[in-house]
Structure formats: structure tokens, C-alpha cells
Design the sequence.
């Protein structure tokens, strides 16, 4: 009897368990699976993250991936920098213009009409200029040629008669007749050349054709600029100084370009105002690393002055901006922690700034990869 009771209890328990499972499968109230599915994934503790105090945690592996590099801050003396607005110009001794001296029609030269970028040597013919004139002017010149032709013929006949009387006629008369005949011949040739001859337009310097303002058959006027030739290895930068004192005692200068830094040597400044400013001239220091620039390209020139200022020199890319737009640098506080530091900077050259406040000597400052640290959230 007892065994029957035990078996009956077990059967009831099994049936109850099976019934409960069936109920859950058909819309029961057990949401344990859904809660497990909706649970958020835990954050990766090895990923870069921003800490509560504003610093950034970056593991060593991530530092290598982001290319972060640091250097120890070193205090030094740096020349103060004056900023100018300038533009690239041709070196006055290595560039020139080709202008029309008279009205005429443009014709191709021996190698065709010169085109942009064509390398030329001094004296190369870039094009020909065929003079153009009105019908009245042309008729007047034709009449002058005919008159000179007749006078030359008379002079030649007179010279022939005098030469037949050599020994009777004084030699000086024969020589005068010979000179007169030659003069008429030269005058006739000069007028005829002006009537039908063309003028060669030659390159004033060796270099490349920087600009061409004409096409074949175009009629131009006197003083029109037809070509400009420059030597790309000899360029200059002209800047404008609105204070005469700032333009005195300048040293070398730099200008930042997307392809690199342009190094400039100070040549001098003008003594006459131009549009309210003094022109200051720099020469581009040519080398294999010199970025390519074009004549007329605007530049921001940073020229060194005589005064000095102390600070920590860092690359321009080491300085970023915080949410408030203030300049900051990143200091390597611990092995895997970087702290933003508000600083005050002044330019040293186109690629370097000097931190004058906010950074202590010997602190390790991030000089490469600072922009990546600023993006960590």
C-alpha cells in the first residue's frame, strides 16, 4: 500500500512538471529568456575610453594602432613671429613678359604657337606678329616704296655714268654717288620690310611659359601682354606690411602648404606705400623638398623677428581644440592615461608653435596622434 502511494505521488509530480512546461511553451508568464536576450553587452575594458575626470584611457595596443608619439617638453628661446599676407610672384631677374610693340595678327612660330608649360630658352621664338594697317596706310607705304625705288634707279644710273668718266670726274663725286645709291637701296628695303615683314616675339628669359593670352590669327594692339615666362626654380613671395617697424629686421620666413612647408629668405622691403602698406620681398629657397607653387598663389607668411620669447616648441598637429574651442595639448600622465591641458601658444614657423603657458618642462606631450585622442568618447 505504501509503495502504491509513493508511485502515485511520483506520477503526479511528473505530470505536473510536464503540464508546466507545456504551459510555458504556449504563452506562459516566464520571461527569463527575453530578459537574457535584452541584457546589454558589457563594455570592452581594453578599448579606449574617456574617464570621468576628462582624461582618456588608451591601452598600449591601441596607442600603437593610433600611432601616438610623445616627447619630453623642453623649454627654449624662440624668435617672435610676424604674420603677413602675401602671394607668389616671379623673381624679377628670372621672369618676364612678351608684349606687342604694335598692332598685328598673331602667327605661329617655328615650333608652333607657344603653349602653357612649354620649356623655352632665352631668345626662342614664341610666335610671330604680322603688322596690320588700314588700306590708306598701306597705300601710303606702297607709294613711298615706289618713290624710293625710282630714286634708287636714278642714283644707280648716275653712278654708272660717273664711273665711266673715272679719271675725268673727281673721285669724291663718284664716291658720293655710290653712297647715295646705297642709301636709297637701304631706305627702300626698310620700308618694304615694314610693309610685309613680321616681328618675332622671343622669350626674354629661360624658363617655362606661365601664361599665354593669344590664339592663332588673333589681332592684338600695342602693349598687349601675349606671353609670360618664368623660371619655376626662381620664385619670390611678396607680402604686405602695414607697420614700417614690423617690416624692419626680419629674418627667414615660412609658409604652410598642403604639400609641405615653403622656406623663404628675406630680401628687403620697399620705401613707398602701396595701397597703404609696404611691400616686403622674400625669395623661395629652392630644394628637392620645396612644394610646388604657382605665380599669384596667396600665402600666409610667418617671418621671424629679432625679439625672443620662451616656450616649449611642439608641432602644430600637437595642439587640438576642446569643446569650448580652447587650444589644448595632451600630456602622457600614466602608461595608459592621457590628460588634456589648456595652453597658450604662439607661432614659431609654419609647422611649429611654442607653448608659453600651461605646460611644464619634462612633461611628456603627445606630438603625433593628438587628434585621435580628442575623438575618444
Sequence:
Amino acid at each position: 500500500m505504501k509503495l502504491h502511494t509513493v508511485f502515485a505521488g511520483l506520477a503526479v509530480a511528473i505530470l505536473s512538471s510536464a503540464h508546466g512546461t507545456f504551459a510555458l511553451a504556449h504563452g506562459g508568464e516566464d520571461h527569463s529568456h527575453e530578459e537574457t536576450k535584452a541584457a546589454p553587452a558589457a563594455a570592452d575594458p581594453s578599448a579606449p575610453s574617456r574617464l570621468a575626470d576628462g582624461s582618456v584611457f588608451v591601452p598600449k595596443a591601441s596607442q600603437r594602432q593610433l600611432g601616438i608619439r610623445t616627447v619630453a617638453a623642453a623649454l627654449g628661446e624662440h624668435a617672435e613671429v610676424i604674420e603677413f599676407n602675401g602671394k607668389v610672384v616671379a623673381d624679377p631677374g628670372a621672369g618676364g613678359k612678351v608684349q606687342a610693340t604694335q598692332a598685328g595678327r598673331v602667327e605661329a612660330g617655328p615650333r608652333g604657337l607657344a603653349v602653357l608649360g612649354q620649356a623655352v630658352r632665352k631668345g626662342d621664338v614664341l610666335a610671330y606678329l604680322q603688322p596690320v594697317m588700314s588700306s590708306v596706310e598701306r597705300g601710303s607705304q606702297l607709294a613711298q616704296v615706289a618713290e624710293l625705288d625710282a630714286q634708287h634707279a636714278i642714283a644707280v644710273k648716275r653712278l654708272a655714268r660717273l664711273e665711266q668718266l673715272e679719271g675725268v670726274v673727281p673721285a669724291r663725286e663718284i664716291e658720293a654717288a655710290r653712297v647715295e645709291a646705297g642709301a636709297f637701296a637701304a631706305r627702300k628695303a626698310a620700308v618694304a620690310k615694314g610693309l610685309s615683314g613680321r616681328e618675332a616675339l622671343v622669350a626674354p628669359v629661360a624658363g617655362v611659359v606661365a601664361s599665354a593670352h593669344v590664339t592663332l590669327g588673333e589681332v592684338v594692339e600695342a602693349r598687349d601682354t601675349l606671353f609670360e615666362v618664368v623660371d619655376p626654380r626662381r620664385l619670390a613671395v611678396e607680402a604686405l606690411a602695414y607697420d614700417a617697424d614690423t617690416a624692419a629686421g626680419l629674418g627667414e620666413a615660412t609658409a604652410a602648404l598642403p604639400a609641405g612647408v615653403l622656406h623663404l629668405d628675406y630680401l628687403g622691403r620697399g620705401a613707398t606705400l602701396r595701397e597703404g602698406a609696404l611691400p616686403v620681398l622674400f625669395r623661395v629657397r629652392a630644394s628637392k623638398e620645396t612644394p610646388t607653387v604657382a605665380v599669384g598663389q596667396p600665402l600666409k607668411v610667418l617671418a621671424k623677428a629679432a625679439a625672443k620669447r620662451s616656450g616649449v616648441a611642439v608641432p602644430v598637429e600637437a595642439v587640438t581644440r576642446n569643446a569650448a574651442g580652447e587650444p589644448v595639448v595632451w600630456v602622457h600622465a600614466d602608461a595608459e592615461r592621457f590628460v588634456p591641458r589648456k595652453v597658450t601658444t604662439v607661432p614659431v614657423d609654419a609647422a611649429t608653435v611654442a607653448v608659453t603657458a600651461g605646460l611644464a618642462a619634462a612633461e611628456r606631450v603627445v606630438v603625433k596622434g593628438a587628434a585621435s585622442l580628442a575623438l575618444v568618447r
